[in-house]
Design brief:
By secondary structure, the protein is of the alpha+beta class. It folds into 4 domains: about 50 residues; about 100 residues, Lipoprotein YajI-like (Immunoglobulin-like, Sandwich); about 90 residues, Immunoglobulin-like, CATH 2.60.40; about 90 residues, Muramoyl-pentapeptide Carboxypeptidase, domain 1 (Orthogonal Bundle). About 20% of the residues lie in helices and about 35% in strands. Strands 1-2-5 form a 3-stranded antiparallel beta sheet, with no helix packed on it. A hairpin with a 4-residue loop joins strand 1 and strand 2.
């Protein structure tokens, strides 16, 4: 082999080496480094751009909210309740969202469309309650869908520390009314008048009076009022409707009548106490109560919304149920109460 050919091999090899180095350098310079935003699973990640050194996959790729069941129940004359059980399968994110409930007739036609907003915390199951005007007999089914779902990490959207305690189901088979007149005079044993009957009716609603309603302030009324005063922390518990007791009951009546402006009789209620154990104010708390029969079947659902519960505050509540519910179909021992608070 002559020297000219050897030189050609040397120059050719050098040229190829230079080209290789230039190409490798360009690749190294212009190729993107592994990151949490390169749409690649390339740095010990659990998924694409999530897990490992990147944000949790449960936060980056949350699952959809689930509709578990939807039912409709009668709620009085030309009124129906839509009850939806939903769940958030994500344990790392909560969500604020909008939802739509379509109410279908027996012919498959949409009778009513309900739109509302709500929220759900990480890993939570929740019950949504919507009351609307429609004859229950004309309804076949209801379906729920979600929109505007805004997932937020649990660290940014956490459930306030609150609880419901001492709740009880009260059934009044001979309640005259669940709206009451405010008291304008002091009442005591031996007195007679329509306001005595109003007092007895109020005490019956509160679960302290079990006798028949009359217009006379007798021994049964005095005992019931004494027990009510003790339970409410009114001292002295004299058994008379004195000024202190009258003002206390009148404030309760204002609250009850405001929640029942229709004047409808509500023979069934669930009452209790909500306590805010958090250091921050609860701006809104929804309390849902569920009634079941002796077989565990759903017989009634209702709710109440409370606002601005300050830190460490305890507040009485009462959830009212429509008179369309058959009292005989209610087993008070299996009542369920759910609390959904929001800061």
């Amino acid at each position: 082999m002559n020297r000219r050919i050897i030189k050609q091999f040397i120059y050719g090899g050098f040229f190829l080496a230079v080209v290789f180095l230039i190409g490798f350098g360009a690749y190294w310079i212009f190729s993107s480094k592994a990151s949490c935003f390169d749409n690649k699973k390339n740095q010990s990640e659990r998924g694409i751009d999530c897990g490992g050194l990147c944000v949790s996959c449960g936060i980056k790729y949350p699952e959809n909210l689930n509709s578990v069941w939807v039912k409709t129940l009668p709620a009085g004359e030309n009124k129906t309740i839509a009850v939806s059980g939903i769940e958030n399968p994500n344990v790392e994110v909560g969500s604020e969202f909008s939802y739509t409930v379509n109410i279908f007739s027996k012919n498959g036609v949409i009778l009513k469309t309900l739109n509302s907003d709500s929220f759900i915390y990480a890993g939570e199951k929740k019950i949504l309650v919507d009351v609307f005007e429609a004859d229950f007999k004309n309804i076949d089914k209801a379906e729920i869908s979600f929109s505007n779902v805004n997932f937020r990490p649990r660290s940014e959207f956490s459930k306030p520390k609150a609880e419901v305690r001492e709740f009880k189901t009260e059934i009044f088979s001979n309640l005259a009314s669940s709206t009451f007149s405010k008291f304008t005079r002091e009442l005591k044993s031996g007195m007679v008048g329509a306001d005595i009957k109003n007092l007895q009716n109020f005490l019956k609603f509160e679960g302290f009076f079990s006798a028949s309603l009359t217009t006379k302030f007798g021994a049964a009324t005095r005992v019931a009022l004494t027990n009510y005063q003790k339970k409410s922390g009114i001292s002295p518990a004299s058994g008379y409707l004195d000024l202190k007791t009258r003002n206390y009951i009148n404030s309760k009546i204002d609250s009850l009548n405001n929640s029942n402006s229709s004047g409808e009789i509500f023979p069934i209620s669930v009452s209790g106490i909500i306590t805010n154990n958090d250091i921050e104010k609860i701006s809104k708390a929804v309390i849902v109560a569920i009634l079941r029969d002796k077989y565990g079947l759903l017989t009634g659902v209702s709710k109440i919304e409370l606002e601005n519960i300050t830190a460490a505050e305890s507040r009485d509540f009462r959830v009212l149920f429509p008179s369309s519910i058959n009292i005989k179909d209610v087993n008070p021992s299996v009542t369920e109460v759910y609390l959904y608070p929001k800061k």
